[in-house]
Amino acid sequence: xxxxxxxxxxxxxxxxxxxxxxxxxxxxxxxxxxxxxxxxxxxxxxxxxxxxxxxxxxxxxxxxxxxxxxxxxxxxxxxxxxxxxxxxxxxxxxxxxxxxxxxxxx
Length: 106
Prior knowledge:
The chain is mainly α. The chain is built from 3 helices and no strands.
């Protein structure tokens, strides 16, 4: 770390000063560890979970809307197939999001 000589010569006679220096050094090391930027593991896990929630929500709404539209085209039930199946897609997406949020983080 530092190549400069210490400001004072170590005193071997007084154990209190040596103990104080050791405690001060340990406190500085703990403070440096505490002030380090967030680890990539925590931020990556949060980012992955957020992406998964977004994918579930968009997939539920978009998939339900598409399947409902296809049912409407073949059955001729103008907006009802779209509304019913999209509503089911939204319910399934929110159910999946709630299940993800109730799980313990890894």
